[in-house]
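ping. complex inputs:
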Amino acid sequence: MYRIAIATVACMLASGCGSNKDPFANTADGSVSQQADASTTTGADAGTSADAGTLACAPAPTRLVVLGDSITACSTIGGINGAGCSPHIFHGYVDSNYASGVAYQNYAVGGAVTKDVPDNQLDNIPTGQAGHVLVLIYIGGNDLQPYIFISDDAAQSRFDTEMPDILAQWQRIFDFFDDSQAFPDGVTIMMNSQYDPFDDCTAAPYNLSPLKIQLLGQFNADLRQLADSHDNVVFTDQHTPYLGHGHHYNVAECPYYIPNAEPWMEDLIHPNAAGHANLATQWAKTADRMYRDSQ
Amino acid sequence: MQDPNSADGTEIHFDEVDNQNPLLPAPYLGAASELVKNRLAVGFAVYAPFGAAIHYPTDGAQRHVVTSVDLKAIHTSVGAAYRLSDRFRVGASINFIYAQLELKQRNAIQYVNGDPEVFPDPDSSVEGDTVLSATDPFSMSATLGAMYSDPSGRFNVGASVLTPVTLHLKGDADVHNDAITALMDDNGNTIQPAGERRDSIRTSIPLPLIARVGVSVRPHPRALVAFDVNWQRWSTFKQLRIDFQNEYELLPSPGVNLYDVIIENDWRDSISVRLGTQVQPIAARPLAVRAGVLYDQSPIDDKHFDLLTPDSDKIGVGVGLSYALAWGGKRIDLAVAYQHLFVAERNVTASEKTILNKPAPSFYNGVTRAGFDNVMLSAGMRF
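pong. complex structure:
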């Protein structure tokens, strides 16, 4: 009986480490339930319960490849090697905690939309090299940004038209990294939800409409669902922790208002240093979940 | 109008706005000399045949179209007239034009790649100022004219043509808005700071061909009646394009940058007619009394009307006096005149105008009332 019990525990451990997805992760429920979490926590703590599907026991990477737009290119905060650049901070975290000497290769470009990643950024990545690759992709804000100031009807129409193509572009990205000759030791991809600069709140002076908040939630849910359908993809919720720190951080009428919250916006759509630090913190949490069982 | 951002149908009310710059001087200086008596004369003049100096409130409903516009077009003309015979005279002049334009308006980041109609009245905290200033230091046009006089001097008929010219203005755009991010080069160096963006601009304004025909009749030795018709080919002014040279980004995001702005004008040819009379009431006194009326058709239809060029059909009435003095062997002519222009009211309900190339009828729909009082003071000396 004792042997059986020991064997059972060992089996459970082996099963947990070998699972593709974290059994304790949130389901792909979009932003709604996460928003509820965020509203009841402090800004610093928000999002700790919002970890998405997590790949356990991922191999330690030999390089961190960063793709995306001006946020991961750190266009407004000193560039990819700037001290406040969130991917640069995250690279330091991975290097210090999980993969000493991991290389940092940031090919993000300001202004990029999702299509630009397979069209213009993937070709920059060295291939055929040994070692596991951790790929951080933060893209989509520029696909959504044109919706902010157009009518609801136009935004809905564009979303319906463009979202299938955006998902198709992601499939091109997955196909690229699935090439075992190009990446003989495998790839782990980190996807992200998009934060809402306007705190999921309809308020002056920007008056982001409820429909557009809903479209952002749908966009994030679609990406999460996409991530969940791939074994080597992990998803970081950057939406929930940001709520209450956007442009309406001091508007008490907003649903995610946090008294005395720190503002995280540098300009209309980009994070400031504190916002970048938060992005890096969320990625670090994802890394913790990925690598904790392999320590 | 109803606020598109209001769920309960809240109305947006815009207060009436007025031009805050009621005075615009239009100086004229000229001289002529008879080089060959009764045969050849030459002259020059410096004048501003048209211009604008209109200033509106910076928080008014019109602020995204214009808060002020200053247009100066200074012509320097040199000309000559030649008497071919007792009945025929011809003349020609070359006009050198210096033009300067400054346009100010309020901007809002929502309009750059958004729909202005969704934000008809943005919060002032997201607005900024745009200043476009441009100059054309040198352009040329010409005037050609001919006149026939009957031998008795009781009847004259003349015609002239002012050739068209396109003003090519170059200058700068200076855009301020807190939402603008710093412009960085590839090495992370700041090219332009956050909150503002500057770029070079070019624009062209076609001035029309103008054809004039006029007659004057002296029904009495001390009375003159004159009538003329002018035709202006404003149909050449199809659109106004403001070309930004570098089209710098405002935010590192697609479409959020400075870009060429095209303003569709679709102006039409127009006609103006004038009728005037001059009477010398006392034979022994060099006093002239004048009166006249005019009708001036606007080249702009309602769909393309805006407060940049708040023009409309006009009817003018004017009166004037002149008196000639002898002073030290010279003749001094002093004149004063007053004219009032009644400008037809514009009630635009279906504008086709745009804000940053996007349809924005509600920014232009509305009622515009205007009127002008022109006061002319002149002094001339013959020696």
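The interface with chain B takes residues 69-70, 73, 75-76, 78-79, 82, 110-111, 113, 141-142, 145-146, 148-151, 154, 202, 204-207, 209, 266-270 of chain A (CB under 8 Å).
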